[in-house]
Amino acid sequence: MSNRLVSGTAAPRLSVNKTYKLYIGGAFPRSESGRVYEVADSKGAFLANAAHASRKDVRDAVVAARKGFAGWSGATAYNRGQVLYRVAEMLEGRREQFVAEVMAQEGLPIKRATALVEQTIDRWVWYAGWTDKIATVLGASNPVAGPYFSFTVPEPSGVIGILAPQESSLLGLVSVLAPVIATGNTAVLVSSRARPLSAMTLAEVLATSDLPAGVVNILTGSPVELAPWLASHADVNGLDLTGAPEILQPELERAAASTVKRVLHAPGTEPDWTQRPELRRLRTFIEHKTVWHPVGV
Amino acid sequence: MPTFEYAPAPESRDLANLRPSYQMFVDGKFVDGTGRPLKTVNPATEEVLAEVATASPDDVDLAVRAARRAYDRVWGRMPGAERGKYLFRIARLIQERSRELAVLESLDNGKPIKEARDTDVPTAAAHFFHHAGWADKLDYAGYGPEPRPLGVAAQVIPWNFPLLMLAWKIAPALACGNTVVLKPAETTPLTALVFADICRQAELPPGVVNILPGAGDIGAALVAHPDVDKVAFTGSTEVGKEITRTLAGTGRRLTLELGGKAANIVFDDAPLDQAVEGIVNGIFFNQGHVCCAGSRLLVQESVAEELLAKLHTRIATLRVGDPLDKNTDVGAINSREQLDKIVELSDAGDAEGAQRWTSPCPLPDRGLFFAPTVFSEVQQSMRIAKEEIFGPVLSVLTFRTPDEAVAKANNTPYGLSAGVWTEKGSRILWAAQRLRAGVVWANTFNRFDPTAPFGGYRESGFGREGGRAGLEAYLDV
Lengths: 297, 477
Fold this sequence. Notes:
InterPro entries (chain A): Ald_DH/histidinol_DH, Ald_DH_N, Aldehyde_DH_dom
Protein name (chain A): NAD/NADP-dependent betaine aldehyde dehydrogenase
Shape of chain A: globular
Largest sheet of chain B: 7 strands, mixed
Helix content of chain B: 25-40%
CATH class of chain A: Alpha Beta
Distance between the termini of chain B: 58 Å
Strand content of chain A: 15-25%
Number of domains of chain A: 1
CATH architecture of the largest domain in chain B: 3-Layer(aba) Sandwich
Oligomer: heterodimer
Largest interface: A-B, 38 and 47 residues
Largest sheet of chain A: 5 strands, parallel
Radius of gyration of chain A: 20 Å
Helix content of chain A: 40-55%
CATH superfamily of the largest domain in chain B: Aldehyde Dehydrogenase, Chain A, domain 1
Strand order of the largest sheet of chain A: 7-6-5-8-9
Order of helices and strands of chain A: EEHHHHHEEEHEHEHEHEHE
Number of strands of chain A: 10
Shape of chain B: globular
Strand order of the largest sheet of chain B: 13-14-15-12-11-16-17
Structural class of chain B: alpha/beta
Keywords (chain A): Oxidoreductase
Structural class of chain A: alpha/beta
Pfam family, one (chain A): Aldedh
Radius of gyration of chain B: 22 Å
EC number (chain A): 1.2.1.8
CATH superfamily of chain A: Aldehyde Dehydrogenase, Chain A, domain 1
Strand content of chain B: 15-25%
Number of helices of chain A: 10
CATH topology of chain A: Aldehyde Dehydrogenase, Chain A, domain 1
């Protein structure tokens, strides 16, 4: 990244720029395709080359997410909450880097960017606290008319493909990712095309927190190119279309139908991510399992 | 074992108050549809029961408009407490007319009268009772204060539980303040039209409930209607996918209850006699026309031989025949088309090398019947282990370890239900956690209740029916 992002020192110094890669199965590979694309700031100046993920990268990411599912969904809710809180700690530690990236990508003044980063951290903490409450809030004990013990528990849907918001590079990103993994799903996320840098910095945070490899996989590149592969992939259980190109959405929904994926439809315009979230994002990618057993002696 | 002969104990057909013709129900009135009338057939005799008016695409439009008007002017703005009272009325009227409904259901569907009488009709009434009480308590459903209804709901239901599926669809929709246009299955429209008469007796405002008999094309026209806000479908996975494609890009809400291929797992410490009863209920209840039927029996190898012997002995006692006979256990297959499908898949079982055992029970000379059948030595790759047969055909597979049982159970794109049989509580909970299915029955099978959410994982569909979770399908939350 250009030296404008490094806090100024007296002597001129050439900054060490970062090479942004993908995040798949806990590792940071370059795109299998070897392609990159240029990411510019809000004024058009060069920020970085981002990896341009391919169909093969999508497939690798889905394989990694499936591999991570058993462990993550099987972990205790308490443990998942601890891990997510640990991520919030790491986010806090990288505050300045996130502020710099949000400023550069979104063209915001420092005060506004700082507020967004702080809200992002708080949002992550909010979802960290949901891991061990969702079953209490959405589950049920069913008073059935018969000698049976019946209860309903929410469980994760599986591997979720997420098309991250195009505008909000960090707060929006975290607002769609955190609820998916808080409930025990694993994720393959395609970042904003024009503003992918915070996604990869978030990946570095995730990689160095205690989040198991494969729980979150992040791809940068073209949603137009990548989304159809996610939507039609038979081992993807859910699809969040929030950041999907509008023109593609009906086609993606049709593709998702072939395996009865759970689909979170895109709102008409990008939501105001600073608003307190509703439960819908937690609810869309869970299943309700009802268990029955006879009662008797 | 001594055998007991049963004297015939037929329920009176007159109780059904069967009429020669039935009209569809739109905007509070019984009207002749402009579609081609259909003849509904008693599958036990293949005799025509009645002629039923059907809808055309124009009628679909009329019904949706009626539902929209009723929603805008009356039902959507009515206080929940008042809506609830209508639902309580409907529940009571179903109970009052339960005998008539049970006999009619048995005649039209072919299911044994004891199942229609003891399961379908009482459970349908229970669904209206349960949801009646929700109508003025939606604030407490956990979706925030003052949740809003969605509007007009298009509902398409299958032929296996005609009245019960209607109740599962209409009760929550009305409780939440929606109006409905419902299309019953082509082969089983009669109880839905008697239900329409119940709506008349309940003095339900015109247009709140509309019933449109017809075939698949009318269902397709209904779910595709641009003024419908919500679609609820129960039926095949294939049609469910097609509906999803139709609705793609419209933003309309959708819930699906689709097919299944449930595993019923029997561990070596299971109470075997109890398990036998559960297995029989799991696959032969309603002729196996149950989306959550326990059609794949997974038995631990060490008890497989013993269990299979017990199972054969027990199944041989099942009485197959006249659905109206109170002693009948297995009734008629609902349609010729469905019988052909069962025959085709069973033949595939033979061709692929499974071992077929057929109950020696006598079958009636006429009508659509299929003797209870068990395939053993079934491999996971066989069609009878993968495809939904939707008939009285059980496929038996074996396993050695609990992990293998769960892996085999989950080896399907479906995920509607599963069964577990073991005396070990910790193993039940372990298996219940790992099974990817919406309902897990442990040491029991095929239990339903309006307070217990029902619905699938994966390709068995999304959304729940019943309980608090079921309300989400009809609320804008």
